[in-house]
Amino acid sequence: MSSDTGDAAGRPRQGPPPIRIRRRTLLLGAGALTTIGAASYWLTEGQPPNPGAAFTTPLRIPPLLQSDVLDGERVFRLVAQAGDTELVPGTRFATMGFNGTYLGPTIRARRGERVRIHVTNDLTVPTTAHWHGMILPATQDGTPHQSIIPSQTWTAAWQIDQPASTLWYHPHPHGQTELQVGRGMAGLFLLDDDSSPDLPSDYGVDDIPLIIQDIAVSSGGGSPGTPVTSPIGRIGNTVIVNGTHEPRFEASTNLVRLRILNASAARCYNLELSTKDAFHLVGTDGGLLPSPEPLTRLLLSPAERAEIVVKLAPDADLVLRSVPHELGMSRGDNIASGAEDTLGILRIAGPRTAPARSVPISLPSSALPQRANALIERHFTLGDTTINGEKMDMTRIDTVVAAGSTEVWTIENSSNRAHNFHIHGARFAVHTVNGDVPAGPLRGPKDTVFIPRGETLELIVPFSSFADPATPYMYHCHLLWHEDQGMMAQYVVADGGLATGPSHDGAGRHH
Ligand SMILES: [Cu+2]
Question: Which structural domain, as residue segments, surrounds residue 377?
Fold first, then answer.
């Protein structure tokens, strides 16, 4: 491992010398960037460099969490804890994690299994454990309503009943989510089912989890809790994957499946391979696509997941990187939000052997919810930190849906900021994007979707059958600073007899 980890400003080393680099002049809006110390933004001119080409640190793989089967339940134990972790060689950060001081182990369970998860809070502050993407009763969801006070243990139990997918877990304490997730409280929750896709599936060997977070590294060391410097939240200047700085993965097979989670608070990643070759998207938040989708770029906003398959030529040596993208804001706001950064994510080395395995033609995907089944339509307007003009109120139920029903939720971003939208307890389909049929990555099952400024998405949302008028699920922006600012609302699932329910802007409309 190289000890040359950064320049005097703490900017991570970018591999071979770039052709030309200049310090970005400040063309940011007033107040957009009051302190630039923690995150210096650089822009390249001409031929971009290849950040990540010199990464050498072996990629860490989060361990699979051991479980016991007791009385027909698969029992897991998590302990939320704080500590300090050397995330970047020579620099220790105040961090938080599950069963360790940074990130958490990977939980894995099968469709049909009953799971029971004991979560002990060894922090000095309250936390929660939310199972992001899981279809389960609201009382088990780990929202701000299931707070775990220090030294207490909370237990969630439910039966897994949804398709194979890459879910995750993270804390959800009201107003404190960005701090706790940003310090490292995140882990994957993989679901299996009885389908056997012809995909790489040997965890840590050819089926590789990638938990991407950005952190702020400055010359003075780690600086969590820096001021907010962009309209979408805190943007770090250094990327770590599974807690590994400058990671390299040495593949032993020519076909590699990457399960990618954007666990960053605000930063979006526009992923591509340094070879510019196509990779194949095989799964989105809620499960597999009907067939692999060849892509050369893939934008992932915070909390979104993607499963991609990368085919490696013999002796391949390439980089998965993030390249500039459009967030729909002003240029200054986009720059402050990291949208013009080029960042190495993971260097991947291929085996010597010739390709032996191919990308499958079709995949065992589950059916998406259909527009024809949706009887109620609701409209949600995103403000800068509001939903339908309101901020989160733990005591207010914003929306009531009927158990087992399907609705159309139209989400309109008329604010000045980029947002995304996450609905708890549901796997939804994106029906339209600005009135058009959605493109590739939005054709799969989703639970979180990016909504650039000025765009309107129609979602087909099937709700669970777990009627509980007393315990709400959340829907919110998953840019965590926005969420903490109150960009969140609550819905409850009522008994099926209720054909309609109030929405923010009046009554739900019948279709
Ligand atoms: Cu937002």
Answer: 371-510
